[in-house]
Amino acid sequence: MDLVSIRVITADVARLAGFYERATGLRADWATEDFAEIRTGRATLAIGSTRTVPLFAPGSARPADNRSVIIEFLVDDVDAVHRNLTGVVDEFVTEPTTMPWGNRALLFRDPDGNLVNFFTPVTPEAVAKFAR
């Protein structure tokens, strides 16, 4: 089994996809105006419109209502990403900080309030864990 995608439901797919394009430097692949994907080497961040929710079950997902999931991206240089996103991100939760488990992490909220973590492994153990 592989985890291949996380889907975020939003009221404004274009705004959120544009934000993630800017934040990641990756281009969104659009299936329809209601669905876009940011594809990385390991997984996909899918962005779906509220209009797609009834296809699964009416009322099963609400946009801008997440307070329990963190969307995480492995990046080469978290400090460079922080500099790049200054002025773009409205709310940095933490500035780049080296965590006890060996990752240097930048935590912020996307335009819908979802928590996002960009991190760079910095200790030998963390680097080895994420070696491809």
Task: Spell out the blueprint of helices and strands.
Elements: E1 5-10, H1 13-24, E2 29-32, E3 35-39, E4 44-49, H2 53-56, E5 70-74, H3 78-85, E6 91-98, E7 103-109, E8 115-121, H4 124-129
Parallel strand pairs: 1-4, 5-8
Antiparallel strand pairs: 2-3, 3-4, 6-7, 7-8
Please describe what this structure looks like.
With 132 residues, this protein is an alpha/beta fold. It has two domains: 59 residues, Roll (2,3-Dihydroxybiphenyl 1,2-Dioxygenase, domain 1); 67 residues, 2,3-Dihydroxybiphenyl 1,2-Dioxygenase, domain 1. The chain contains four helices and eight strands, in the order E-H-E-E-E-H-E-H-E-E-E-H. The strands form two sheets. Strands 1-4-3-2 form a four-stranded mixed sheet, covered by helices on one side. A four-stranded mixed sheet has the order 5-8-7-6.
Beta percentage is 35-45%
Instruction: Indicate the percent of residues in helices.
Output: 10-25%
Q: Could you describe the largest sheet, including whether it forms a barrel?
A: 4 strands, mixed
Second CATH tier, the architecture of the largest domain = Roll
Report the mean per-residue pLDDT as an integer.
96
Number of strands: 8
Oligomer: single chain
**What is the count of helical runs?**
4
* Low-pLDDT sequence parts: none
